[in-house]
Every structure is written in C-alpha cells, then in structure tokens.
From TrEMBL, chains A, B:
One of its GO terms (biological process) is carbohydrate catabolic process. One of its GO terms (molecular function) is magnesium ion binding. This is Mitochondrial enolase superfamily member 1. SMART domains: MR_MLE. Its EC number is 4.2.1.68. Pfam families: MR_MLE_C. InterPro entries: Enolase-like_C_sf (IPR036849), Enolase-like_N (IPR029017), Enolase_C-like (IPR029065), Mandel_Rmase/mucon_lact_enz_CS (IPR018110), Mandelate_racemase_C (IPR013342), RHMD-like (IPR046945). PANTHER family: ENOLASE SUPERFAMILY, MANDELATE RACEMASE, MITOCHONDRIAL ENOLASE SUPERFAMILY MEMBER 1. Transmembrane segments: none annotated. Keywords: Lyase, Magnesium, Metal-binding. The gene is ENOSF1. Residues 61-85 are annotated as: Disordered. Residues 65-76 have a biased composition (Basic and acidic residues).
Length: 350, 350
C-alpha cells in the first residue's frame, strides 16, 4: 500500500505540430496537432505518477465517470493456458497493424513509398483513411491492395464522415478491395445506425469497427447488444481509465467479439499495449481477428517507448503504465510558451 | 442583418447556493448549487447578446456540435391553425407542471405544505423525486397522491439512479400511485435499456421520460427509433442550442411522441418556454400529454422572468430569448469572489 500523501500535481498542455506534415490527417481532421494533457502527481515520500489524455490540440478533456456497476462476465482461461500465453507474448509479441502508411493527406507517391518500406519491415496489416472523395479512395485502396497482395489485410477508416445510407453505399463501392473492416462509418453515438450498416455489409464480408469515441461502457454494452460492431476498438484515454476498459473487454468476451484497440495518438500505443496483453493473457485467449493499431510517431518522447518487432508489440519490460514523458519533451512542447510553439507562432506572426 | 462586429465577450461563473435549503436535491445530486456559465457579447455598435448554460456548480460546459445533417420532417399545421394556436397561447398559456413541491431532501411536512399551497394556486401536475429509498418513496408518493386526488397528474423522477432490471422492479412497486411517467430511470446513454424499461412498464400505463442529459439529436433519433421513451424532454442548454432542439422537436413530431421540456435550472424556464411555444404553434399543434416543467426559484435574477398564470406559462412579451440577467445578480453571485460566495466561504472557513 502507498503511505505518502499527494504533495504536488502538475498539468501540462503538451502539443506536437503534427499537422505541418499531415501526419494524423483523416476525413474529419484536416490539420490535427497531436497533443496531450499530461499530469504528474508527486507524493511527499518521493513517488511520482504520470497520466496522459490524448487530444488533437483543442485542450484537455476530462471524463467524469460515475462509479455505478455494470454486469459482465467471462470464463478466464486456466492458469496453465495463461502461462503459455505469457511465454508466447514474451517471445513473439502481440500482432499490430499500421496506420502510418495511408493518412488522408499523403500523396500517392508517399503512400507507395511508405507501404513499400512497411512491407520490407514485415507489416502485413494496413489501414487506409477514406471518406473525403470516393474516386480518390478507389485509387488509393487499389494502389495499396496491389502493393500488399491478396493475403495481407487492409482496413478502411472513415472517421465518422457519413450518414447511415451513405456509409453503406460508399463502402459497397470499396468492397472489391476486400477491407476487413470499415471503421467509424458514421456518428459514433449512432448505435442503431451502426447496426444497420453492420447488417448491410455482412454479406460483403466487411465488418464494422468503432469505439475510440465511445465515452463509456454503457455505449459499448449497447453496441454489443445490438450487433452493431464486429471489432471493439477500446481506447486507453477516452473512457474512465483501466477499470472501465476492463469492463468493456469482459463484455466483448461475453459477446465473443474481438478487441482491436485504437492507438496512435501521443502515448496511446504506450498505454494500450498493457490492456491488449491483459486481454490476450487473461480474457480472450485468442488472436483470431485480433490486432492492435500502431502509428510510428512521437514515441521518442517517452521514457519507455513501445517496442515493435516484426510488426508485433513486444511486452514492455519497465514497471508502470509506460506513460512517463521526458521532461525536455514536455518543456519544449508546452503550448503556447514552449520553444517549439514559440517558434511556430512567431513564424505565423501571431 | 447585423452590421456591428463583436467588440467584447464576457463570461461569468454565476452560482446560487441552492444546496443550503435542499432546493434541487435528487437521487444523484444531494447538494447542487444551481449555477450558470453566463456569456455577454457586445458589438461595436452597441448591441448586446446574452447566453446561458446551466450547471450544478461544477463549472462551464460547452457542447461542441459538428454541423452534419440529420433527416426529419413534419407536416406543419396550416396558417389558420397557427393563428388560432397563437391566440390560444396568448390567452391561456402553455400547461406547466411543478417540481418545486417534492425535492428529495424535503421533509414530509414541507411536501405537505408546498403541495397544499400549489393546489390552491391551480397546479394540477406534480413531479416527485424518487430513487434513494423505496419505503421512503412509497410514503412520499402516497402522501402526494392523496393530497392531489385521483384526477391530477403525478410524475416520478429517479435521476438515473437504477440499473435496468432494478428500474423495472422499483417502478412496478410505485405503480399503485399511477405515475404518468418515470423520468431518467437509468443511465441516460442506455437507449436499449430505456427500450426494455418502456416495454416492461407499458402494461402498467407508465411511460418513460428522458432527454435532459441527451447530448445531441443522434441520441434522440435512436431513443425514438427504439421506442425507448414516451416523453421527449428537450433541454434548452444541453444540446447545440435552438437549431439542434428544432431538429429534435421535428423528429418527435414524426414519431408522434410528445415533447415535455426539462426546465428548472437557472434560466432554463426562461429559455425553454420559447421552444415549447414554437412546438405547439408550428409543429405539434397538440396539447395531448404535453406540459413543460416549472420550478419556482431564481427567476428574480432575470430581466424578463417567466410569467406563470394558473399553472400555465404565459408567452413572453419582451423581445429576445429571455436570457438577460440583472447586472447586480451576476456581480453578487460570481464564484468565488462575489459578495454571496465570499460570505459563505468565509463562514466555512475556506
């Protein structure tokens, strides 16, 4: 048990100017600056705790969660299985997919080059941002599918761009590229809309993935009850932290729907790898249709950055939630008075 | 068209210490201080605009709404009908119900006295807060039903206190008091849960009412699609202002579900009366099962306070949205440096 009292609490508004190079661009966010509300708590006996919430530059988001219960159960694998799965993870890691190749703002030349590099690095699962322009998306998906071949996986992500009927019609036109899922086809609150889309796309072999904008377990409960998603995309920062995510993982197991976490924003890969390893070792015990998102940027600001080997997340070996940033990174990227932002804002004459 | 430019914008954190007398207490909020984020915009040619968002003392809430479309339609009544309805409203007003008699923290003696006064003032529809303790609620509902007689309306409000099965079982035990609706029986995000509750309570003649915590039209769309509510409780401040509420009223009309607005918080009665009059005159053209909440406090701080006559909202005659507060009220109730709060905080030794 901890004995110290909280003696200090510091909050920093840390922002990275990712929009300058279109990293992170999608159908809803043309110019996102990946950012974090970063909290450091210190106790009077010298311990420190680090917490992070991802934003796209519009400030701190705090999720208030009431503490009421929700039902959910799973059949945990026997401890022998657990040990086997732990060993497997330590050796091979948890399968990842990459979103770094095909942000919406990238040129075809960039796509081709990034995809080619990723293939040589061993990546087999690729996500493509879609939803701004159909002809553009057909060209981009065709390009990627040709490069990765018929065996590798392709997923598409519309970032909530469409209405329900529009989503069905649009995705049907991309079915020839055999996407495993369409992610965030419409408003993330529209459970019944997602159910209609799921039903319409099932005959095409395309699942619906969503969850990164789901604000609590009650929303996930309904998505599962209504068969409105086929891939549960938990996020380490959106809901009320670890406990709320555990409830969601247990419900997903009950409904036999795979958990494929959202990641990519500042610190999200670092955090969510802990949750998905727990899911595999202690809850789902399966890798079927399961993978965790990976985006290859901003990891250098963390003291225990994610380690990717052969397109797999290797289990973190340092203690903690991998959430501690380097002091220097925090200082430099403070908004608006850190060195990086002073220089950008001066250039823009503001 | 407005010609001036915005020259000044002032935001005040205005709080009223309502918790001192248990006004506003319910099953989820034992000690709410009714508060408002109050915004005044001034243009360089001297115009002023006043905006308000209700909170329970935990600060400003700002709803960011994207601008995407949702479908909905209604058949507007003919203009002759409209004129008739306008006249009717000017003469008789819009029916209201009172929540002022039965806050959860009031004693039985207080209930009896307030209810008795309300009856002599012409009130016929009464809401009772429930959900903390069943025996307590049975006693309170029995008391109120006896006082108001069999013809008047009684509604109950649990402020999200229960799980789904718990709500059904609890309300079934209050059915003998013939509540017209149970309000917020469970988590306000749980559309499918509300559908299950609606289905279970329909044979008892009890409807489900919700909406004050619904954050956008997409949530209302699903509540309506799933037959998850029988009374649509729009709120003037929760969603993206007037336009979003119009979309919700039009959807309610399409599904033939009555709109019975939430009100009571600082300024909510002042604002929502405009919306419900529009609903009657231009959308629903019906008063069947329709009424608007009223709470009798804090109106004295507004320049154009609501006028209640014989338990009806009388149409406001001043121009505008009735949202302007007296400067003196704003000054005195600024948190934490206004006169009222300085004195309370000093007493509490903080």
């Amino acid at each position: 048990m901890l004995k110290g009292k909280i003696a200090k609490l510091a909050v920093s508004d840390v922002r990275f100017p990712t929009s300058l190079e279109q990293h992170g661009s999608d159908a809803m966010h043309a110019n996102p600056d990946y950012s974090a509300a970063y909290v450091v708590i210190e106790t009077d006996d010298g311990l420190k705790g680090y917490g992070i919430t991802f934003t796209v530059g519009r400030g701190t988001e705090i999720e208030n969660e009431d503490g009421r219960g929700e039902k959910g159960h799973s059949e945990p694998p026997r401890s022998g299985m657990k040990r086997g799965h732990k060993k497997e993870m330590l050796k091979e890691g948890y399968p990842a997919y990459t979103t770094s190749c095909a942000w919406l703002g990238y040129s075809d030349q960039q796509l081709t080059q990034l995809c080619s590099t990723a293939l040589t690095e061993g990546w087999t699962k690729f996500k493509v941002k879609v939803g701004a322009d159909l002809q553009d998306d057909i060209r981009r998906c065709s390009l990627i599918r040709k490069m990765i071949g018929p065996e590798n996986s392709l997923m598409i992500d519309a970032n909530q761009r469409w209405d329900v009927a529009e989503a069905i019609s649009y995705v049907t036109k991309l079915a020839e590229f055999r996407p495993l899922w369409i992610e965030e086809p419409t408003c993330p609150d529209d459970i019944l809309g997602h159910a209609a889309i799921s039903k319409a796309l099932a005959p095409l072999g395309i699942g619906v993935a969503t969850g990164e904008q789901c604000h609590n377990r009650v929303m996930f409960k309904q998505f599962l009850q209504a068969s409105a998603l086929q891939f549960v995309q938990i996020d380490s920062c959106r809901v009320g932290s670890v406990n709320e995510n555990l409830a969601i993982m247990l419900m997903a197991a009950k409904f036999r729907v795979p958990v494929c976490p959202h990641a990519g924003g500042v610190g999200l890969c670092e955090l969510v790898q802990h949750l998905i390893l727990f899911d595999y070792i202690s809850v789902s015990a399966s890798l079927e249709n399961r993978m965790c998102e990976y985006v290859d940027h901003l990891h250098e600001h963390f003291k225990s950055p994610t380690v990717i080997r052969n397109a797999h997340y290797m289990p973190p070996k340092d203690p903690g939630f991998s959430s501690e940033m380097f002091d220097e990174s925090v200082q430099k990227h403070q908004f608006p008075h850190g060195e990086v932002w002073r220089s950008i804002l001066e250039k823009n004459g503001s």
